Amino acid sequence: MIPLIEINEVPKGLLEIESARDLHTILPHPTLLTLEGHRPQPLFVTVLLHGNEDTGLFAVQKILQKYRGLRLPRSLIVFFGNIDAAREELRRLDGQPDYNRVWPGGEAQESDEADLIRRVMERVTAQPLFASIDIHNNTGKNPHYGCINRLDADFLYLASLFARTIVYFETPKGVQSLALAPYCPAVTIECGKPHLPYGIEEAARFVDTLLHLAKFPHHLQHKDTDVYHTALRITIPEAFSFSFNDKEADLHLLSELEESNFSELPAGTRFATVKPDSNARFAAYDDDGDDRFDDYFFIENNEIRLKKPMMPSMITLDERVIRQDCFCYLMERIEIPK
Fold it and tell me: Span 100-113, mean pLDDT?
């Protein structure tokens, strides 16, 4: 069993650490920090579900520094997640399930990590929650955006407070925002690459905004937002090798595609070159878990190309992350009634 530390005051040294690698010296295990505020209904924030995504840690650090010695505007619960992976600057350790895939309804539900998350859920949902934020980074070049699992007005408004770009998704299952959605408006915020001051500032601003927000508006106050639906999750089956540099790999991926995140690509756009006489291809899973490769891609002259216009997101050049998670997502625009 993975220990869960529960504390009600900011531990000594937390506000001073300069690297997520050092967090284990302050919090040796996953931790729930609960702080009371003027408004009792808590804001729930999760950080470091992926150990190499440190923006959330430093955003929370900024908030706690701002209110040092003061009562928070609203009660706050922070879950510090995969501290062991943070120590190694990895998304997750080898052999360890993804901390953002083991929430209720997700993968590896018999694992110690899923048991840990069930205990976290029991604690935080024992009271009404105001909202939930899961703070993440990308490994590829992407704008800041918010991800939601419901198109309800509160969820759209919550995401719009962070960024004009909003992504609605139903898969993968087992993510924090999907698990919290039945209890309160919930959002995952993607804050660009780790370590960058702008991402930290924007995440801290967003958390502070919600600490001060008294309630959600009765009606959606439309902002200048773009809403997209994730149609496909693109992975590379274990049976196939891939590389951005080695042209002898089963799939030779195009590094320039990273520049195309959140840009609509026309039909015919080349995504990869297939090794001759290989049957290599992507897996392109829709929300039902069906492989829709043939509906969205075609192979011609040993090249994988788009069959229809689509918008990619989260294309990354990090081959370890591609193998652990996915190559990218493909999205379509949603028109929200005014």
Answer: 95
pTM comes to 0.92
Whether pLDDT at 250 is above 70: yes
- Mean of pLDDT values over 101-114: 95
pLDDT at 221: 57
Which of 54, 55, 63 has its CA nearest to residue 33? 63
Count of alpha carbons within 13 Å of 72, Cβ hemisphere only? 27
Predicted pLDDT at 103: 98
Residue type at position 47: V
Domains in the chain, ordered, with CATH? 5-224 (3.40.630.10), 231-330 (no CATH)
Phi then psi for residue 197, to 5 deg, are -55, -40
- Separation between Cα atoms, residue 118 and residue 114, nearest integer Å: 6
Rounded average pLDDT over 290-313: 96
Say if residues 4 and 81 touch (Cβ distance below 8 Å).
no
Average pLDDT, the chain: 95
pLDDT band at 60 (very low <50, low <70, confident <90, very high): very high
| Mean pLDDT of the 199-223 span | 88
> What are the residues whose beta carbons fall under 8 Å from the beta carbon of 18, sequence distance 6 or more?
none
Phi and psi at residue 257, to the nearest 5°: -65, -25
| H, E, C per residue of the chain | CCCCEEECCCCCCCCCCCCHHHHHHCCCCCEEEEECEEEEEEEEEEECCCCCCCHHHHHHHHHHHHCCCCCEEEEEEEEECCHHHHHCCCCCCCCCCCCCCCCCCCCCCCCHHHHHHHHHHHHHCCCCCCEEEEEECCCCCCCCEEEECCCCHHHHHHHHCCCCEEEECCCCCCCHHHHHCCCCCEEEEECCCCCCHHHHHHHHHHHHHHHHCCCCCCCCCCCCCEEEEEEEEEECCCCCCEECCCCCCCEEECHHHHHHCCCCECCCCEEEEECCCCCCCCEEECCCCCECHHHHEEEECCEEEECCCEEEECCCCCHHHHHHCCCEEEEEEECCCC
